[in-house]
Every structure is written in structure tokens, then in C-alpha cells.
Fold:
Amino acid sequence: MWSIDQRCFPPGIAYPRRELAAYIQHRGSFTVVAERAGEKPSVAGFIVAEASRRGVGHIITIDVLPASRRGGLGSQLLVAAEERLRHVPCHTVVLETAVDNTSALGFYKRHHYSVVKVVPRYYSTGVDAFVLEKQIEGPLPASTGP
Ligand SMILES: CC(C)(COP(=O)(O)OP(=O)(O)OC[C@H]1O[C@@H](n2cnc3c(N)ncnc32)[C@H](O)[C@@H]1OP(=O)(O)O)[C@@H](O)C(=O)NCCC(=O)NCCS
Structure:
């Protein structure tokens, strides 16, 4: 998963191996992995999320390998994580993404996330982050798929 993360994010935004491992092992966190079927099944993407006691879920990272993008895999991972957080129960999901990550912003907009604030110089590269949020209480919106 660390090597996938390295391929999905630029240096300085991708997680150092130990940090990603710590998030995956953190109490309250979970990881959903998507496998590519075939003779030699391999991991095509994953999502790491955690639930706080305050009912707030946090998407730590979502990574889909370039060759597997725009086929609905990211959406399936995100919906699976939201469902699991909803059952904790969490009422809100938050996440951070780089302000210049246009594909992620398009993806999260499609999934009804809204920008709630900007964190200046959030990443070690000096890039700012948007904090995005979505309420997950109540029935799902009619269209969450791609
Ligand atoms: C963001 C990411 C997880 C999306 O995964 P994906 O499997 O391509 O997503 P989906 O196929 O489910 O896309 C669903 C919808 O999101 C939007 N979307 C996805 N990629 C997009 C892009 N590059 N530009 C604009 N909108 C995009 C589209 O509305 C898309 O629907 P469509 O393909 O019918 O137009 C993937 O691009 C990725 O891993 N990026 C690198 C890591 C990253 O930036 N993670 C998010 C920040 S934490």
C-alpha cells in the first residue's frame, strides 16, 4: 500500500512508510482494499479511514492506481468507508486534500463534499490544503456512484 501511495501522490504529499503504517494500525482506523481480479490478483486501490469518539470520521487517504482510475473503483472505496463510518456511528466525514489536486476535488464534489476551510501550508511542500466535509446522517443521496 505504501508503494501505491508513492505512485498516487507527489513527493512531500505521499505518506512516509512509517506514518502510513501508523495510520493503518491506529485504534479506530480501518482499511478497505480493492483487488484487481485475474490470474495474479493485485491491489488496485485502497482507502484508510478512522472514526473519532465524537462521531466524526476522517478519510486519511484514498489511492487508486492510475491504470484503474475513472472506472468507479474510487467511488466504491469511498462509499464502503462512508457506510462503515455511518455504522460506528459517525454523523460527519472530514478529509484534507491539496488545493491543486483537481482530480480529487472533482471526485469529492461528485460525492457531495463541501470545502469548509483552507489550511495554509498544510503539506511539507508548502502547498495549502482544503478541508472538505460531508454529513452522512440520514438516507444516502440518490446518486453517489460514478
Ligand atoms: C481521486 C481518486 C481516488 C479517484 O478514483 P477513481 O477510481 O478514478 O474515481 P471514480 O472512477 O469513482 O470517479 C468518480 C467520479 O469522480 C470524478 N472524478 C474522478 N477523477 C476525476 C478527475 N481526474 N477529474 C475530474 N473529476 C474526476 C468524476 O465525476 C468521476 O465520474 P466520471 O468518471 O463518470 O466522470 C484517484 O484519482 C486517485 O487515486 N488519485 C490520486 C490520489 C488522490 O488524489 N486521492 C485523493 C486525495 S486524499
Summary: Strands lie at 29-36, 42-51, 56-64, 92-98, 114-119, 129-135. Residues 73-86 form the longest helix (14 residues). The domain at 2-135 is CATH 3.40.630.30 (Aminopeptidase). Residues 30 and 141 are 24 Å apart (CA to CA).
